[in-house]
Amino acid sequence: MRTRSRLVATMLAVATSVTLLTGCGILASQPAPTSTVRSADGESVVISWEDYPAHAGVDGERLLGAPDAAELEGPARGVMDAVRGAVQDESGVPLHPLTPTTEWFGIDDWFPQQGNGYGGDSMLTSVNCCDLQSDAVPTPDRWDAVFAAANAALVEAGLGALTEDQALDDEYRDTYCTGAGGTCWLRSMTAYDGYQWVFVTIQDTTLDPTGDAAREAEEMGWPLASIAVGYGATVVDAGRSDEFAAAIAPFVGLERPDATTSD
Length: 263
Known about the structure:
Blueprint: H1 6-20, E1 34-38, E2 44-48, H2 73-91, E3 96-97, E4 110-112, E5 124-133, H3 143-157, E6 163-164, H4 170-176, E7 186-192, E8 196-204, H5 212-220, E9 225-236, H6 241-248
Antiparallel strand pairs: 1-2, 3-5, 4-5, 5-9, 6-7, 7-8, 8-9
């Protein structure tokens, strides 16, 4: 994702890495796992997860009936319009696209998956795009209301509720909630419906009492305070929905094994 702040990028990596899934880390290559299923005539059949058309980290069944890569742009733009309007109305500050909206969903925003995590091919591709950012933020006592407005728009759009990207535990608070009275100077939330996600991040580096965050922002030419919103999804390759549905049919209802390869 493109953002202007390392601090924001660190938080957003949590949401992105869960669902982009262009890799699963470094794994020694192992044989693909197998499962035994019953055929239509009642016979036992062994299937190999090498033939799974999605990815070890993705619930492929959730993609059945979902838009493919060619069909996604229209609905996704509708989601972003709704969230942008809700955030701007509640916060009172405008959100600007970091790249021209005409370039959203361009070829550079797409990341085809090369493997399925079991040594086979994947029919999925991921997109990260549509980054919006403000140059100011409301006072911290209004941040909850901004998140609530974004949440309402996302729930209405069908993505579900926003959840905190990081638990507000002691470690988090010691790093990001060091303002007066324990005020957090950076918070990030993500909504995820199984194949698409939207993140909303609010930060005000001037509230960091150490001054480190503000100094970094000034050195890099970033806004001292900003709201950031972005979109991503993992979907079936364009024009392959029927092929995908046929390929995943033997795996429907089965528990996915852990990945055995790092693709």
